[in-house]
């Protein structure tokens, strides 16, 4: 469990002094992202923090390769210009483990993407084989970009299913069976020798949308991933929302059909059991040769009537649940992600219709529903961003 | 509209410099609540804010009667002790307008209750008559406590139904018909001559629970008000959550019965249309002489079978929706408030059963469902607290 203790996220509880220091550091990062290079006096003015606090935060960040310090002058006096590091060699890696694929990305601290690779895997692959493969790809990407392992700040990992924030373990009943009881953080830290942070794919998708998506300015953003599972990542008041347990946005387990299909969570008729890509493929099994999500997307785009109907039915169920979600959270935008996002209006149209029918009218008029523009890269990108966010708020 | 412009809540947008100043001031208040009287140097240390920032905030709060400044010494040097003002005569008033009652409370800045009064009104009373009556009661309470109008920091008001945070107007379709198009803030500011802040009853109930309830330490708390309407107030990450519009927690408009009873929102089969006290009374109309919520509560406590069954059926619907809500937000605690809270386990039992059946198991085990201990006082109390919160974070 030595690896576990390195995980920054395990170190602090909300409301503590540590949490206060984290919030202060987050402010410095926000200011640097917004205005670029600044003197410490500038940062103090912009954040309202004391120069002593700013000095501590800047020292820590410099030591950890997050900012560069350059001598400059300010009002004729000597000062130090603080800048978020970009292409100085420091990178974060993001790994997204999908049902049948694995994506690794390398990202610089200014969020430009250094390199990425996606490979297809057999369905229900062994997670340990996935970890070994991820290491291979990561090694290759580091070599390609001339980056040393020492320059790797950390690795973010996304899996489908909930993560219990209290012990960083996947939650049984929400992850695929072969991932139950797998201690992803320890397994990967053992293999990679760098700190690993783990989160749920939908949560990471929401983080990626705020950085690389078209709606990053939204203070309240819901990222709804529709794939072999269905889940939402929540950005509330500008921050990822994790609730008491980390198990949030589980709209896939809202019941939409009383006594419907059995769900892996133990309930029946859950949105995920009725409207995930798995459920869609199941509905088509007896009348079409379609067996994969890729085939389904292709058939829909070719106008296959049965496939279109399955998308429409699923869209209606999704729209209804998303409508209820919006009546609770009133977000500025709901981003539909996952392998069906490329269908655009074909999916958005039935979703929007059911949404409009169920949500409160005023919330309907102030909430946009859009398709993600990140294809299936959101998870890995968000995982890499998480590394910087965790590092940026590491205890000082 | 002159009165409208005085409303502090209308002044800032999230993410702005104003919002940063608000957050800084909130920290000072938190520190003073937690440790009591402090020097400005102490406050700077505790909050990480600069002494200049602290000095600005303290001056503003002193000017507005929120803190007292007393000369003291610290490490042998002259200093000023800052203390949140308590019984110095400064008060906030809270007014709760219910379906058939009106409650006014006076609260000191340390949240002790100075005075309160509750009167019963005819159903569907004219809001303007309510405003006049509220002024009468408020005048009486100020006299009783020997408080001048000048010492009144402001008045918080709670009504049933959503408030659009963008224009501070009640949202049509969520408020009772006679409250539609009523500009509560302007009407009351005209009558009272002090700043008025308006919020939804469930939101205010959630604020009251964090201060006067038994679960105030929870970072994520849902207050579910079940009365003639049903709505939830959300405390997320320790703060009231308002989303993009202020229309949040609207679980009363989640559909629970396809094509069920028509709801005032325009939809059918909403939780509110099926499980509010109004819906319960409607179900009992033909078989019992029960016509008011008070009679319903009395009948249930006396073991009336029809009344018990109606509570159980409503409880199941409520539990299901609350289960879905918890799978989305994973709160530490859900507090049931409103006129049925006094039923305790008679209501909590069916709610808990349906909740357990619908929520994800791990969230179920980490979420408590309890009855409010504030009777029907939460709304007015929360409204008074809101005055201090708004004042404490007023632009400096």
TrEMBL record, chains A, B:
InterPro entries: ATPase_NBD, HTH_MarR-typ, ROK, ROK_cs, WH-like_DNA-bd_sf, WH_DNA-bd_sf. Residues 1-19 have a biased composition (Polar residues). Residues 1-24 are annotated as: Disordered. It comes from the Bacteria. Gene3D superfamilies: 3.30.420.40, Winged helix-like DNA-binding domain superfamily/Winged helix DNA-binding domain. Residues 23-78 form the HTH marR-type domain. It holds the Pfam family MarR_2. Belongs to the ROK (NagC/XylR) family. This is ROK family transcriptional regulator. It comes from Frondihabitans peucedani.
